[in-house]
Amino acid sequence: MARERSVIPIHYNLKIVPCPVNFSFLGECFIEICIAEPTYGITLNAKELNIQTATARDHLSKTGYSVTATSVSYNVEEETITLEFPQLLYVGTSWILDIAYIGLVNDKLNGFYRSVYTDADNKVHQLTTTQFQSTHARRAFPCWDEPSVKATFSLTLVAPSDKTCLSNMSIGSRTILENGMQEVAFLKTPVMATYLLAWMIGDFDYIEAYTSGEFNGEPVLCRLYAPVGLARHGQYSLDLAVKAVEYFSRLFNIPYPLPKLDLVAVPDFSPGAMENWGLIAFRTYALLLAEDGSNDRQREIAATVVHEISHQWFGNLVTMEWWSDLWLFEGFATHLAYIVVDDLFPGWDIWSEFVKRIQEVLKHDALRTSHPVEVGVANPSEITQIFDEVSYMKGAAVLRMLSAWLGQDRLLQGIRKFMMKYMWGNANTEDLWVTLAEECNVDVPGFMRKWTRQTGHPVLSITELDESTILVRQNLFLSTGDVRDDEDTLLWPVPLALATADNPMPQNITMDTKELILKVDTTKWYKFNMGQAGFYRVSYPPKTLDLLGQALTKRGTQRAISEDHQNGTLDAANRVGLLTDAAALVASGNAPTSSFLTLLKYFEDEENYMVWAEISLRLQELFSVWLEQPTPVMNALKEVQRRLFTKIVKRLGWTSTEDEDPAVGNLRALAIRYAGRAGDPDIVAEARRRFTIFMANRDLTAIPPDLRFPVFEIVLRTTTGVEEYDAIVNYYREAYLPDEKVVALTVLGYGHSPELIRRTLTFAMSPEVRTQDILNAIATLRSSALGRAEMWNFMRHHWDILYERHCDDIRFLDYFVLLSIGSFTSLERYREVGEFFSNKDTSSYERILATCLEGIRMQILWLERDRRNVEEWLRTNGYLLDEATDDTATAADLTYVDGNNGSCVQVEVDHEELDHAHSMLSLGHRREPDLEVDGRSRSSSTAGGFSSSATNSAYFSARTSAASSRSSSPQN
Questions:
Q1: Long-range contacts (CB closer than 8 Å, 24 or more residues apart) made by 30-33
Q2: What are the two backbone dihedrals, phi and then psi, of residue 187, each rounded to the nearest 5 degrees?
Q3: Backbone angles phi, psi at 97, to 5 degrees
Q4: CA dihedral over 137, 138, 141, 144, signed as positive or negative
Q5: N or C, which terminus of the chain has less Cβ within 10 Å?
């Protein structure tokens, strides 16, 4: 941290002059500062800036007193510069710090960087843009680059006169200069954090609309900017933005604070979106929608756009004190986005989607390598690593739980009070809890601290003592199922929300003890966490799980108990929760996998898209772990999937009707995809027929947009030829809309022959694919055993250049590591990963690496424990012939594909050997303190164990030179 208490910035006056010939820029920064203590030196943040001159001037002095810095020292590790002055800078006046410098217009997708795109007429367009969150403003100008050091900003850009210049505020003046240049000065911003400043220079089209709300007597102008020719595809997002601005103005009772709001689709952009105040940046895919875009895409874009607009108040107007409170502002933006989208689109059943979405963070949070929601961070690499699912989705989930506990109206009233109290300033988590406690007159800090300061979450285990009494016990839940006594000391205040067959309205009981005895009729169904607002798992006795399942199979009863969770019924969100808890419990060893497979039979007549989407995800999780098991076993599992989803396809058909509910279309696409994945011959044949017609003449009636991904995937999964693969590559090259490009790129990984897998890796790393899209191309390679082996070999052989090129984009590195190793299920691979990274400097990605290794360990244990259990269930239920597998083995024979020659290798694993390997890799055993809860320090696991320095090598020189020649940057 660079902040000096003796120096406080008041206002930045910044001038930026890009020099496109050598990818540099000239900068001059006038910073009005207040000096609280006399000093000879001033330290502030700067990275990759070459300081030319620095002068301090007393701008209130009639004599114009000034002093020039005699030296500038650079601290590369701390990312700071220190200016030393020969005279004392005294207290009692206002100084202007004038710094002239040269910086880089880089290709790293952060700081001030360059991008390029080609329009529909094959004309190349250059643009420059910024991405400052979290600590990259220092790459563009010297500053105190911390969220609590707020100031106002005036910005001037010098650019070619035919380019569009954008920043946070409206243009104040525009002057045409010589040589075809322009000087654009923007109005002064309100007080704000450095990471929210932004500017862009380039060729854009735009569409616009006005809000009905007013700012200084005028409606707020909302514009959507996009690459040339694409702006019309932003109409959906623009209309939504106008509604969201009006909604949040009413919700917070605070008008939108700026005179305009721009939403910009940026061709190269690392995060999905960024809430720069008044100038929100998005990936093109996250903002633009084809005119016939699917309902899934509408929901996806709505959640993103509303999330970023909520930040214009909660995050920008009121800002976190330090990055340790990132969760509060990201979690609240996510939670608020769901509230608004649910209100704007009540037919979407958005809260069922929320329940489905938080399953990934529940899975992540059940590993020892997770971290508390409130987590201490100090340096940029630590800060970047907490932009994860825990900060965003666990944060949102515990806030939803708080909303259910308090009541949404009371929560929102408390938020309004919080916003009014801290607007234009900074606040932390405790400030919010105290404000809510005062407003609601309940102990909010006591309830929430344990949820935000302790790592992990509980599982409630239910024991039926007799037909009218149950014992509820809470324990720490770990995906590996091996909770130690010293770990199982945590307690959470758990809102039980208990509903029964006789009393379906949830009872609001808060359990803050290890055990609790309740009176419940155990001869009928009962359910905890009704509404699925609680962030915990529930383990029912098999009989109760069966009773819940039986209730769902009675179609009349199902309809009656699935419409309205407000009345305590088992709506879609509750059914999703029932499924996900069951799946998590079998993966952790708290129940046999056969119990989840048995539960699925109760959902055969399910009609809700969200429920089926969750079923598909849990089946794919099972298939991923079992992927390299003997072919008869995998074919039997596919048959389970085929029977479930083919039934839906037969009911819905391939063609939509004019007045069809969008959810029906979503379900049709999902069912076709997963029935085709399972190899249903009729569906595969129909997909191939439609694919041939579509590729011949781009007949949209053959493959409408919502079926494009399923059909492309089915075709590539069921062929080893190159003709279909080449057709999709050409479709990618011809496509102009981001929707079309992402679909084509993502399905390439389903080509499963050795040749196609290698082609996908090569293509993904070529200049034809933007860096932000590489992960789309390689993610699906995990769907085959050979794809996993090839990805792992690729990463090992080319790690040094990958790290060198992307070390400043930790999100990219995190996901690349996750995709390359996260699916492994053998001890041999586990060892290989540990050995490979043992001599690398993993400090910038240690959390994700540790999470992957812990996840691999969980998968190994699951497979070892339940391999025979699954085979027996498949055999008993007629999916697997008796002679299909070898029952003579006495140890778990874990199979993996040798990446050197593609052959299968069998590895015998026992618990002692796995535990020894785990301890040797130092994972899950080195822990750091959680934040203090009730005066006590709780322990929290950290990423562990690797250090040393990485070496560098040369790779992809063709890509690097090609990317440089096109002035392009080579990813939640």
A1: 30/96, 30/97, 30/98, 31/96, 31/97, 31/99, 31/142, 31/143, 32/59, 32/94, 32/95, 32/96, 32/97, 33/7, 33/8, 33/9, 33/94, 33/95, 33/96, 33/97
A2: -65, 155
A3: -95, 115
A4: positive
A5: C
Please list the residues that pair with 199 across neighbouring strands: 167
**1-201: in CATH 1.10.3660.10:** no
* Residues 96, 32 contacting (CB under 8 angstroms): yes
Catalytic residue among 4, 48, 308, 614: 308
Assign domain 318-453 to its CATH architecture: Orthogonal Bundle (1.10)
- Which residues on adjacent β-strands are paired with residue 167? 199
Q: Which helix (H) or strand (E) holds 212?
A: strand 205-215
Q: Is 911 labelled a binding residue?
A: no
Task: Specify the 3-state DSSP secondary structure of 906.
Answer: strand
Of the candidates 444, 550, 554, 460, which has an alpha carbon nearest to the alpha carbon of residue 498? 460
Q: Which of 457, 377, 456 is nearest to 810 (CA)?
A: 377
Residue type for 373, please? V
- 307 labelled ligand-binding: yes
Is the CB of residue 745 less than 8 Å from the CB of residue 732? yes
Token pair 């003046």: residue: 173
Tell me, yes or no, if 79 is annotated catalytic.
no
Total Cβ atoms within 10 A of residue 134: 18
pLDDT at 773 over 60: yes
The DSSP secondary-structure symbol of 591 reads: S
Whether pLDDT at 555 is above 50: no
Q: Are 741 and 732 in contact (CB under 8 A)?
A: yes
The one-letter amino acid at 692:
T
Other CB atoms within a 10 A radius of the CB of residue 504 amount to 19
Cβ neighbours of 898 (radius 10 Å): 11
Using the Cα atoms of residue 333, residue 338, residue 342 and residue 347 in order, give the sign of their dihedral: positive
Kindly state the tokens that stand for 388.
Answer: 């994860």
Residue 316 has pLDDT above 70, yes or no: yes
SS3 (DSSP) at 71: strand
User: For 98-144, how does the pLDDT look when each residue is reduced to its tens digit (9 = 90+)?
Assistant: 999 999 999 999 999 999 999 999 999 999 999 999 999 999 999 99
Q: How far apart are CA 112 and CA 103, in angstroms?
A: 9
CA-based end-to-end distance of the chain: 25
CA angle 776, 953, 762 (to 5 degrees): 30
The average pLDDT across 331-344 equals 96
What was the pLDDT predicted at 719? 85
DSSP string, 404-429: HHH-HHHHHHHHHHHHHHHTTSEE-H
Whether the Cβ atoms of residue 752 and residue 720 lie closer than 8 Å to each other: yes
User: Which pairing describes strands 426-427 and 319-320: parallel, antiparallel, or unpaired?
Assistant: parallel
Q: Measuring CA to CA, how many Å separate 590 from each of 104, 113, 359, 943?
A: 54, 50, 17, 25
Closest CA to 949 of 804, 844, 839, 807: 839
Q: What is the DSSP string of 771-837?
A: HHHHHHHHHGGGGSHHHHHHHHHHHHHHHHHHHHHHTT-HHHHHHHHHHHHTT--SHHHHHHHHHHH
Give pTM, 2 decimals: 0.88
Q: What is the pLDDT of residue 504?
A: 86
Instruction: Please check whether residue 845 is in contact with residue 812, taking contact to mean a CB–CB distance below 8 angstroms.
Output: no
Q: Where are the domains of the chain?
A: 1-201, 318-453, 784-972
Cα 925 to Cα 915: distance, rounded to the nearest angstrom: 11
Q: Which residues pair with 905 in a beta bridge?
A: 896
